[in-house]
Amino acid sequence: MQRRLANVNIWTVAAIAIIAALFLPNLTIVTGLFTPSNDNWAHMKEFVLWSFVTNSLILVVATAASTILIGLSLAWLIAQYQFPFRRFLKWALILPLSIPPFIGAYTYHGIVNYTGVIQTTLRERFGMELNPAHFDIMNLPGAIFIYTVFLYPYVYTITQVFLSQQSASLIESTRLLGKGPWRTFFQVVVPISRISIIAGASLVILEVLNDYGVVKYYGIQTFTTAIFQSWFGLGDIETSIKLAASLMGFVIVILLIEKILRGRRQYSYSSTKVRPLPLIKLTGWKAFAAAGYGFSILALGFFIPVIQLIDWTVLTFGTIPLDEFMSYIRNSVFVAGFSAAAIIVFALIVGNFARLVQGKLAKMLPKLTVLGYSIPGAVIAVAVVTAFVALDEFLAPLYQLAGLNTTLVLSVSIILLITAYIIRFFAIGYSSIETGYDKIGTDFQDASRLLGAGLTRTFFKVDMPMMKGAIVSGFILVFIDVLKEIPLTLILRPFNFDTLSTKAFQYASDEKIMEASQASLLIVGISALAIIVFYKFLEKELD
Predict the structure, then answer these.
(1) Among 256, 247, 249, 253, which Cα is nearest to 222's?
(2) What is the DSSP string of 401-448?
(3) Whether the predicted pLDDT of 121 surpasses 90
(4) Contact yes or no for 519/500 (Cβ under 8 A)
């Protein structure tokens, strides 16, 4: 009994320490609200703060609406109808997630600008001289288009999985009542899919608020760009903290609205005999229109930008020294791999703690760790820097004893960046691990303990082999997100430390968009491959 209690205590102490380390740095942002205001903050609050709010709100609302329209329509098309290339489109429509929006932003700008393929073709082959202003996408509508075509898979994936597993009796009942396909869609499909639609749209909104690359490249003033400007342009960390606190408040309001929209209305099966939706075969022009719609969206979100990136890569191949390019790959793989591995290890500890320890507190504490994903990267960067600077000041006497001439050690190291990654993306890894724990249950663990094995031995000998699928899928998802991440890396990377994403962003910002294609194409290729592997794994699990 004492041995088992000791094992529980070890898991409890480790889990609580991880939860505190992931949650407490974000509290430093809250304290910024109570610090005295300086001239920069007073100027921003009086003259430009409202423009940050307005632009952010327009981007959020318009992108959410457009991604819901596209994602839901595609999900219903795939879940309900049979048409040519449906099986291919079912998984291929997720591929736009492999392209970070900032890569899509500069790629589309290169395609439609004066020297781009569209205007060049119209001038040289058709003799058409058009006003270049008509092709300008470096504005709010252009940013909304970019976010929509690369983020709609969040709504599509969640809603499509839900609709594919929905009971056929619900839809068949509406047809027996004489309702046509349009009335069935709006009066039945949309209401029963509300929770999945809102879940997907919420992820889209959080991605838009977190993004820095698109709005910076297109010159749109938002909270994220303002945080960068006040920090790096003005050297004013106090104003950055206040802007970060304002953005955090903005996010909290959005999450509350999401909670209200979800409401308490639920749709559950009235029978245990649940049949999936039978596919309706489309013929003629309807089949052509369905396939054409799917391929049009896929072309905008994947094929067109990838073809352009390949073309630019061929034209500029060799312009970046190989050893320099390899250093970007090594840095990217290192931080993404190490962060993903650390997140999975921490998630296994926290998830096992939630499973072993009974009580509401043990169930509630792990939920604090997932808040990081709802907080934009720029806010987390400010929080982590503030916390690490305070930690360095606390450890300053030890640094002096060690013979160091500086008090800034941890706050300028790679540890700072990896810590921020862990806080930001822990929710992704934890969700996968939590699902894995729920799937294996506790029966095998109980049997192992009855045979005399302790909790720790049971974890490594019984739980871990059964958790391989959850561990691999969680690692892949975190690896992809870290590989594509921009705001955290730009702010927190050590001196002369570049990754594929930061270098691509720097080249694009310097108007060297062709040179940016090489790093971008590698990011897209790795991410696309990982997404395909993950989706096939998910599809197998659902079947």
Answers:
(1) 247
(2) HTT-S-S-SGGGSHHHHHHHHHHHHHHHHHHHHHHHHHHH-SHHHHHH
(3) no
(4) yes
